[in-house]
């Protein structure tokens, strides 16, 4: 099963238009057509149908990708004229898509006022949304910390936050934890556990630290799967006490079902540079379609609405904070159970302990090392 946060690395093959069917001419009636390439959630009818009702003469389609690079490479491979919006994680707008002219700037007069109503980390406004020249490249919405998850009936929050990644080196935890196999995040988290900066080239002694940590973490895991439901079930049933790679995103379904002892943890330290955690932020950008749809920016504004922002946060069975929760009208739409599911009580503190997700320069070599460890 391919999961939402299991990012692929490197080029993805051109896989066709899938839900859109075979390539065809999309030039006519562009004011009546909107195509969105996104992570799951934005392709949900509960989000799309209200927009369709506002534009009954428009054809509105959305398709979920399997990784950031896969979606970006679809634009490179011939689908630039197909899509109007793309929803991927924060480093790609500045790092690749703007550079390669895959996206176009948004109307700053239209969208800058929305930043002022976002949560503090985005209200500045969020720097990853802008190019060096000041162009607005994308709008943030869903986000969250992503490190590991524990059963707080077995491991206290205090212990987990204080010990951080060292928790998984405790001999007493051997065969008592799971490994959620989201490869890209595993590579980042193994670097953090080894005290290595994944966002710089990892070579020499640091590469050996990574290799040693990968072997140790893999050898000590009782369960390895990319299925977050199976991992949460093992945690709830007592088969494991915690799992390596996870966050409020993966813990949220179990918590919303009442298992509040399933809790995402952001280490207080460790890692490198005084921060032990990592976080992700989605940005939605306008594709540089040669015949752009007028509905692209309309949709971007539509998902800023309080009632729609809440639907985006709670769609598709996993639940996430949204930047728009800084707006009291948006926050008021989340009841106590919803806020508890996404661990809103510690969200700001958890995010402050995180490095932002970024591309990993040594990813291919580190992934090969990690895969070798898994194969034994």
Helix percentage: 25-40%
Global outline = globular
How many individual domains? 2
Separation, N- and C-terminal Cα atoms: 22 Å
Radius of gyration: 20 Å
* CATH topology annotation of the largest domain: D-Maltodextrin-Binding Protein, domain 2
| Sheet having the most strands | 11 strands, mixed
User: Briefly, what CATH class of the largest domain?
Assistant: Alpha Beta
Question: Spans of 5+ residues with little confidence (pLDDT < 50)?
Answer: 1-29
Helical region count? Answer: 15
H/E series, N to C?
A: EHEHEHEHEHEHHEHEHEEHHEEHHHEH
What proportion strand?
15-25%
Mean pLDDT: 92
Which second-level CATH architecture of the largest domain applies? 3-Layer(aba) Sandwich
Keywords: Signal
Protein name: Spermidine/putrescine ABC transporter periplasmic substrate-binding protein
Organism: Paracoccus haematequi
């Amino acid at each position: 099963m391919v999961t939402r946060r299991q990012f692929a690395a490197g080029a993805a093959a051109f896989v066709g238009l899938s839900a859109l069917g075979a390539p065809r001419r999309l030039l006519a009636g562009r004011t009546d057509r909107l195509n969105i390439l996104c992570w799951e959630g934005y392709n949900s009818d509960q989000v799309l149908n209200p927009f369709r009702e506002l534009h009954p003469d428009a054809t509105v389609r959305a398709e979920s990708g399997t990784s950031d690079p896969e979606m970006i490479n679809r634009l490179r491979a011939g689908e630039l004229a197909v899509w109007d919006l793309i929803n991927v994680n924060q480093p790609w707008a500045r790092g690749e898509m703007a550079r390669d002219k895959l996206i176009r700037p948004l109307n700053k007069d239209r969208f800058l006022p929305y930043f002022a109503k976002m949560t503090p980390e985005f209200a500045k406004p969020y720097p990853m949304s802008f190019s060096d020249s000041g162009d607005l490249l994308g709008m943030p919405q869903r986000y969250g910390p992503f490190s590991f998850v524990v059963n707080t009936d077995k491991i206290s929050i205090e212990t987990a936050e204080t010990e951080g990644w060292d928790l998984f080196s405790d001999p007493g935890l051997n065969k008592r934890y799971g490994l959620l196999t989201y490869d890209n995040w595993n590579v980042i988290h193994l670097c953090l556990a080894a005290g290595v900066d994944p966002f710089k080239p990892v070579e020499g002694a640091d590469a050996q630290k990574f290799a040693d940590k990968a072997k140790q973490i893999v050898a000590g895991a009782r369960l390895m799967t990319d299925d977050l439901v199976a991992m949460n079930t093992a945690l709830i049933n007592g088969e494991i006490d915690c799992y390596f790679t996870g966050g409020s995103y993966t813990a949220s379904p179990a918590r919303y079902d009442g298992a509040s002892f399933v809790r995402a943890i952001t280490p207080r330290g460790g890692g490198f540079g005084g921060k032990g955690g990592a976080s992700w932020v989605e940005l939605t950008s306008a594709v540089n379609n040669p015949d752009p749809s007028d509905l692209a920016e309309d949709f971007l504004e539509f998902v800023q609405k309080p009632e729609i922002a809440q639907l985006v946060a709670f769609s598709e069975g996993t639940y996430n904070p949204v930047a728009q929760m800084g707006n009291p009208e948006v926050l008021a739409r989340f009841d106590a159970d919803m806020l508890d599911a996404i661990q809103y009580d510690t969200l700001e503190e958890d995010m402050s302990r995180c490095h932002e997700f970024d591309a990993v320069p040594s990813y291919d070599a580190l992934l090969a090392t990690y895969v070798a460890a898994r194969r034994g």
